[in-house]
Specification:
Chain A: One of its GO terms (biological process) is proton motive force-driven plasma membrane ATP synthesis. The complex is a heterodimer of chains A (467) and B (594). Chain A has helices at 143-146, 167-177, 198-210, 234-248, 260-273, 287-295, 324-332, 341-345, 362-365, 375-399, 406-423, 433-444, 457-463, and strands at residues 13-15, 18-22, 25-29, 39-43, 49-58, 61-66, 79-82, 88-91, 99-101, 117-120, 131-132, 137-139, 151-152, 159-161, 179-180, 188-196, 217-223, 252-258, 299-301, 307-315, 335-338, 358-359. Chain A is of the alpha/beta class. Chain B is built from 15 helices and 26 strands. Classes of the chains: A alpha/beta (467), B alpha+beta (594). Chains A and B meet through strand 5, strand 11, helix 6, helix 7 and helix 10 of A and strand 1, helix 1, helix 4, helix 6 and helix 11 of B. Strand 5 of chain A pairs antiparallel with strand 1 of chain B, so a sheet runs across the interface. Bound molecules: adenosine-5'-triphosphate and magnesium ion. Adenosine-5'-triphosphate (ATP) sits between chains B (236, 238-244, 265, 395, 429-430, 507-510) and A (331, 358, 360).
């Protein structure tokens, strides 16, 4: 039997024997009694304190991941304290309106938060039998979303973007305009910044201040120049607050998390420091499950009023949707909004590639009593027609537009109008779902009635504009 | 005496324990003070490597590890139907009640089957004291749900003389309802027994799957059918429609029992089934779908080790109902997550990786899983045939079908429904690519179609496929030289292929009429399109009419024909004939005008 380490005051166990340092990891000699996943405090010889957690533990050695990084840590003169608990944050409604660092400490100069409860940031898996299926239509005022990829309350719907594309503007527009019709309650926003540029952070902060929404927003910020290991905790810290607000305080929470690509890179860094067998492009094989432990923290629950709607933002490396980060994300989330450089270059805002975008929870959120009775048919038809038009467009570039049949030419006109008037709108323009559907009918009416085979005759009769 | 050791190392879901001499491979152990459930996956001397099925956060080296003496097993008996279990058969509704939490707490132990509930047991009359019985022999029945008569069997591998059998009456599953004497030992019989999940249940004989498992999905039943006892894989990138298709199979298939394994996928997808299935009716019996369904959920945020187990837990239950003489459908969404769990476990055990980090035994594990499908003569009396049909989703990274899980799966399944990202982008659902999908059962099930639906089913199916294949070639030509140089019959191919796609292959899973088509309706729709095709073909070949004239003349009724899939109710399929007649009449007028 191994020697039991003595825990001091408040269950703290101490070691001064750092054996090895590799990347963000410390290998610390310990007596037994240290727990897997335990929170660790590292005191440098300078007196500086950092935090970390136990990633691997055997009878003699604990592997500690240091959130703030290992720069400046020496194998001598360092004290490592095992704190006898996992990383927890105190949560409270008063955190709305405040700004925190990536580990949940206030950085806005305000008072420290008086916690109503302490929670493990890792959370626990929601029991599938406790979930309630998300069904409430959120009107974002953006046609490409409301009409074609409807968001519902409790959904996790990421934005797949690329460098220089207006994902921040779009996310802000959605945060500002989103309402569930028939309710005038605003969303509380939990905002997690993961390794983003200061400019991007300023953009959001200014935006929340200007819209007067600051009091409903809690921001957790880890900037690009801050330690990468913290990024692994930031979304978890933010979602821990979100869960508290949703399930204990009956709030509808919108969680905006940006940029998940930085998160995944931090994950890769730890993995390679641990010399794990890498999966695709060096990302660890468990990245799917790891990402899921973040994304699945969205939803609605039976018997609770609140909800968590997640809108993560990620940039696709090289605009490549098959890159492991967007790919694994798409496999977990309930759809995706894909931004497109081609549309952006043609001046279309928001440059949403509707064909590549998807909302899996749309079906329950639309239709009579929710949006409008024709919505289902209209969106099916828009998809069918727009994808046919795309095909014809590429055909026309080969054989020339003049060789297309008259009907086919109408498809090209339709697609042009669809992009220019339906998808395209101002960042300040807030369209009702009726406006969105009416614009859809304007563009669909460019096509002959007999082409609209996805639409029921009764809806055609009511809405189709005969020329 | 059970083994008692101590934790030496913890790394994620892997726990290494020492002082474990005597422990067996795959034995279930209790880990740490909370007694977390784990399974032994490697032994070196007295050191055991353990996969823990729950979060290991907070575990410490030095905590105890206790052997249970048993391999991972499931409870099989009445009360399985309508349940939702986690990956190691913990009933999630009960977990919810017991923990009084919306989250899955760890360390909770609950029996899989309700202990208190009384079931009305009816013994089989012919048995009396002294009858010879063997594993699989049915000794009585219990009404498990309105749909399922649960047949109580002598557990596998037991044979002997029936000593007692209780009279008709109400019993809970722990009560003895009889006993068998085997080799001088009395073995009690209960309404349930347990079975180790990694060992296939025995049967008498395997048969050729030759009856279709009708699914109500047109592209499947008509073009790429699955047989009862068959195996199918449905690979596709994210969002291409694997889950919707598997939900469709679970909903509409003519199976007696459906087992749905949510393996490393979304929580809401389980919730959807939980909310929808009690409301939706089984089209074959009119009863709520939940009365024939068992759910197993290890969602993507639940512990990974249990993901690996969930597949075996599910297939063992499937075999159990098969042994009762029922047709069982098992769907697993997604087998890739299961394979990834294998990979993760192998990685933590520091095994030598083969392709893309997967262990070298990936292929054999996949093969073993699909081998558990089949149509069999069950063990024991009376003679009965049951089947397990398996449909597994595959989630290839980047939608690349050459990756290990997809390519190995392909070797072991006989039906391949390949989902296509391009079709999904254009919202052609189900996005099953007809050019690369296949079914090895198309010929074997054709007898059934000939007998029950129409004698020309086979030819018409082939004809439809030919048109679709030819369309692909014609489109190649168009991409090179445009439509102008096309012959009229090639233009007809384009026209008919579009009809087939829009009016037959596309099937909206969320439309109350379109979602499900029974075989006769499927055939009627197909024949309608082919009839139109044949009539036009005669016209352009013999009378020199052009396709653009034809299309102009019949565009109204053709639009109606396309809409028919969601506008014509199930009991009014003669409407299709009316539309076809309308089209034929217009074509005749065109011909007369010549
Ligand atoms: N037959 C269908 N009818 C209508 N819509 C469909 C159909 N099949 C798929 N869809 C649409 O496609 C979406 C994605 O389908 P699904 O969730 O089945 O994808 P998946 O292949 O399981 O993806 P993932 O691998 O990410 O789980 C659905 O939410 C639905 O909107
Ligand atoms: Mg799916």
């Amino acid at each position: 039997m191994s020697r039991k380490g003595k825990r001091g005051i408040a269950g703290i166990l101490e070691s001064r024997e750092v054996e090895r340092i590799r990347g963000p990891l410390l290998f610390v000699k310990i007596a037994s009694g240290v727990a897997f996943d335990e929170l660790v405090e590292i005191e440098l010889s300078s007196g500086e304190k950092r935090r970390g957690r136990v990633l691997d533990i055997s009878s003699g050695v604990a592997v500690v991941q240091v959130f703030e990084g290992t720069t400046g840590i020496s194998t001598t003169g360092t004290t490592v304290r095992f704190l006898g608990k996992t990383l927890e944050i105190g949560v409270s409604e008063d955190m709305l309106g405040r700004i925190f660092n990536g580990l949940g400490d206030p950085i806005d100069g305000g008072p420290s938060v008086i916690a109503e409860e302490k929670r493990d940031v890792n959370g626990e898996p929601l029991n599938p039998a406790s979930r309630a299926y998300p069904k409430d239509f959120i009107q974002t005022g953006v046609s490409a979303i409301d009409g074609m990829n409807t968001l519902v309350r409790g959904q996790k719907l990421p934005i797949f973007s690329g460098g220089g594309l207006p994902h921040n503007v779009l996310a802000a527009q959605i945060a500002r305009q989103s309402v569930v019709r028939g309710e005038n309650e605003q969303f509380a926003v939990v905002f997690a910044a993961i390794g983003i540029k200061y400019d991007d952070f300023l953009f959001f902060r200014k935006f929340f201040e200007e819209t007067g929404a600051r009091s409903k927003v809690a921001m957790f910020v880890n900037l690009a120049n801050e330690p990468a290991m913290i990024r692994l905790m930031t979304p978890r810290v933010a979602l821990t607050l979100a869960e508290y607000l949703a399930y204990e305080r009956d709030m509808h929470v919108l969680a905006i998390i940006t940029d998940m690509t930085n998160y995944a890179e931090a994950l890769r860094e730890v993995s390679s420091a641990r010399e794990e067998i890498p999966g695709r492009q060096g990302y660890p094989g468990y990245m799917y499950s790891d990402l899921a432990s973040i994304y699945e923290r969205a939803g609605r629950v039976i018997g609770k009023k609140g909800s968590i709607t997640q809108m993560p933002i990620l940039s696709m490396p090289n605009d490549d949707i098959t890159h492991p980060i967007p790919d694994l994300t798409g496999y977990i989330t309930e759809g995706q909004i894909v931004l497109d450089r081609g549309l952006y270059n043609r001046g279309i805002y928001p440059p949403v590639n509707v064909l590549m975008s998807l909302s899996r929870l749309m079906k329950e959120g639309i239709g009579p009593g929710k949006t409008r009775e024709d919505h289902n048919d209209v969106y099916n038809q828009l998809y069918a027609a727009y994808s046919r038009a795309q095909e014809l467009r590429s055909l026309a570039t080969i054989i020339g537009e003049e060789s297309l049949s008259p009907t086919d030419k109408k498809y090209l006109r339709f697609s042009e109008a669809f992009e220019r008037t339906f998808i395209n709108q101002l960042p300040t323009e807030n369209r009702s779902i009726e406006e969105t559907l009416d614009i859809a009918w304007n563009v669909l009416s460019i096509l002959p009635e007999n082409e609209l085979t996805n639409i029921r005759p009764e809806h055609l009769q009511k809405y189709y504009k005969k020329s | 005496m059970s083994v008692l050791g101590r934790i030496r190392r913890i790394s994620g879901s892997l726990v290494v324990a020492e002082d474990m001499a005597g422990i067996k491979m795959y034995e279930v152990v209790e880990v740490g003070e909370e007694g977390l459930i784990g399974e032994v996956s490697r032994i070196e001397g007295d050191v055991a490597y353990i996969q823990v099925y729950e979060s290991t956060s907070g575990l410490r080296p030095g905590e105890i590890v206790k052997g249970t003496g048993n391999p991972l097993s499931v409870e099989l008996g009445p009360g399985l139907i309508s349940q939702i279990y986690d990956g190691i058969q913990r009933p999630l509704e009960d977990v919810k009640k017991l923990s009084n939490s919306i989250f899955v707490k760890r360390g909770i132990r609950l029996p899989a089957l309700p202990r208190e509930k009384k079931w009305h047991f009816k013994p089989i009359e012919q048995f009396k004291h002294g009858s010879k019985v063997s594993g699989g022999t049915i000794i009585g029945t219990v009404k498990e749900s309105e749909l399922i008569e649960h047949r109580i069997m002598v557990p596998p591998n037991i044979h002997g003389v029936l000593k007692e059998l209780s009279p008709e009456g109400d019993y809970n599953i722990e009560e003895e309802i009889g006993s068998v004497e085997q080799d001088g030992k009395k073995i009690p019989l209960k309404l349930y027994h347990t079975w180790p999940v990694r060992i296939p249940r025995p049967y008498q004989d395997k048969l050729e799957p030759n009856e279709p498992l009708v699914t109500g999905l047109r592209i499947i039943d008509t073009l790429f059918p699955i047989a009862k006892g068959g195996t199918a894989a449905i690979p596709g990138g994210f969002g291409t429609g694997k889950t919707v298709t598997l939900h469709g199979l679970a909903q509409w298939s003519e199976a007696k029992v459906v087992i749905y394994i949510g393996c490393g996928e979304r929580g809401n997808e389980m919730t959807e089934v939980l909310e929808r299935f009690p409301e939706y009716k089984d089209p074959w019996t009119g009863r709520p779908l939940m009365e024939r369904t068992i759910l197993i959920a290890n969602t993507s945020n639940m512990p990974v080790a249990a993901r690996e187990a969930s597949i075996y837990v599910g297939v063992t239950m499937a075999e159990y109902y098969r042994d009762q003489g029922y047709d069982v459908l098992l769907v697993a969404d997604s087998t890739s997550r299961w394979a990834e769990a294998l990979r993760e476990i192998a990685g933590r055990l520091e095994e030598m990786p083969a392709e893309e980090g997967y262990p070298s035994y990936l292929a054999s594990r996949i093969a073993e899983f699909y081998e558990r499908a089949g149509r069999v003569i069950a063990a024991g009396d009376p003679r009965r045939i049951g089947s397990v049909t398996i449909g597994g989703a595959v989630s290839p990274p980047g939608g690349d079908f050459t990756e290990p899980v997809t390519s190995h799966t392909r070797r072991f399944v006989r039906v391949f429904w390949a989902l296509d990202t391009a079709l999904a982008y254009s919202r052609h659902y189900p996005a099953i690519n007809w050019l690369i999908s296949y079914s090895a059962y198309a010929d074997t099930v054709s007898e059934w179609w000939k007998k029950n639906v129409d004698s020309s089913w086979s030819e018409d199916r082939k004809r439809a496929l030919e048109i679709l294949y030819r369309e692909n070639e014609v489109r190649e030509i168009v991409r090179l030289v445009g439509t102008e140089g096309l012959s009229e019959s090639d233009k007809l191919i384009l026209f008919t292929a579009r009809l087939l796609k829009d009016g037959f292959l596309k099937q909206n899973a969320f439309d109350p009429i379109d979602a499900f088509s029974e075989p006769r309706r499927q055939y009627k729709m197909l024949r309608s399109i082919l009839t139109v095709h044949e009539a036009i073909s005669a016209l352009i070949l013999q009378k020199g009419v052009t396709m653009s004239e034809v299309e102009g003349a019949i565009s109204d009724p053709v639009a109606k024909l396309v809409r028919g899939r969601y506008t014509i109710p199930h009991d009014r399929t003669e409407e299709f004939d009316k539309i076809v007649n309308e089209i034929l009449k217009k074509l005749e007028e065109l011909q007369k005008a010549r």
